[in-house]
Amino acid sequence: MKKYSFLQVLTVLTAVFISTGLRAQDYPKWLDRSVFYQIYPSSYMDSDGNGIGDIKGITSKLDYIRSVGVTAIWLNPVYESGWMDGGYDVIDYYKVDPRFGTNTDMVDLISEAHKRGIKVIMDLVAGHTSDRNRWFLQSMEADPNQRYSDYYIWTDEISEKDKEDIAERYRQPNPKSSTIGKFVEKNAPRAKYYYKNYYEAQPALNYGFANPDPAHPWEQSVDAPGPRAVWQELRNIMVFWFDKGVDGFRVDMAQSLVKNDDGFKVTSRMWRDFTSWMHEHYPDNVLLAEWSDPEVSLPAGFNVDFFLPWRSATGYTKLILPEPYGKHATNYFNKAGLGEVREFVDYYSRTLQTVGKIGYMAPQTSNHDVQRPNILTRNTIDQLKVSITFFLTLKSIPFIYYGDEIGMKYNPDAPEKEGSREVFSSGFVNERAGSRTPMQWTNGLNAGFSTCDPKDIFLPVDTDGGALTVETQENDPNSLLNYVRKVLALRQESPAMSNTGDWEYVSDPDKPYPMVYKRFSGDEIYLVALNPSGKKVSATFSTLGRTHAEVFSMTGKAVFKSGKVTDRIDMGPVSSVIFKIEK
Question: Which CATH class is domain 6-126+226-314+351-488?
Fold first, then answer.
């Protein structure tokens, strides 16, 4: 396979940026100081005592959210839903689900957040709807020439390739429909099968096919009337909420819209056209991509892209997730000390060089699909401080999943809830409900989340005897919550530690413990060192040319020794440190 030099790659990417109108720092400047906080609305705060969180509950906690050091919140879907997949099966994009309140409640939340300097980002489920959505119901009808007829992909026949496509990963428990590859058998008046995007209850919206096969009449081009109408509908949804004050969207499965698109070339082109419109008419608003490939998504016009643990090419999976999920032996942040960092360091360094001027990468402490840092044997406050130091000190936008700031536990025994049980073709089952348990506010009934009878609570809570609550940690200067506040305050005060400060890995990536990197801007230098293992470790690296290291924060023990040629850090078990390096 032909290899390309870094200069060749950079030249090509620069040409792409110029051709698409994306230049250095061509994004809303508020992102440069942003810290995001993800909220699963059903689980954050219940204002009416029915056991399920709601929008008024979130509004009541905005002062707390601001106190953590957060400047923006991202809400998982709040639209009217069939609740077959945690809100990601949307019935009506223009209406808040009654379980959360009303559209007016949402506008009030946005207004109150803005008063506190907090941006509000909604979740945009762009690739599919609920099978109860009125668009889909009309598309099922025999007449193929109605308004929503071609919003979905229908056929009476399926190609052999589509029959063989892996589908079991996205099966709902006890599905009522028969799935054949990517298609679901419906026997509707319109046609026998429809194309699904995830679960059977989530028919794919028709954004067209990159290379439609003439032998497959159901494969429309991206320029056909149906796909063009769907793109316009997506724009209408965004305008509706933008005009009510929403500051942006996180786009679910952003790379999945155009079908049969190898390399995502057509998908990227379509998104560039779309985001150019958005940045022209709503220049202060942002789009976040669930894509996990910033070298593709950011040139396509997105402002932020996530690290996602299921994209193994980044090395990120080996850092934060066990392999397989139920074991922790090779996870970098496990005490066994058997992890690795080389793949991540190489990928992260390269990506910062290629796209670091047009947008941001975003690691997440966890999310609604991924286990929390507090899991199994990774469960002490010191361990959690070490791991969260990593998330909060990279050159990126920090994303804190609600409750991770107080060390809430992943509960592997949480009952299946609203499609949370994800079954893979390998036989592995991801119990996502374990990361969606209610926020733990106090040591009282239901951890202060709801006044309901405990049997009616959305999911069970586990405060570890009251230790993992906001109430307990507020007044403890050594708590995880106050540690998070301290580090986030540093990000706001220090150019070097901010989202825009530079990053360089300084220790040997092939000797992964400890992990040592510097953050710097101008003459200001901070050094971050992490040792999540249960062993004493050391690292030697080229001298930073300064003799003094002032401790900003420390977990466990760490010593910095400067030299004329090399510097050295000695660290105790389960330790982390942020040094300010001074002359």
Answer: alpha beta
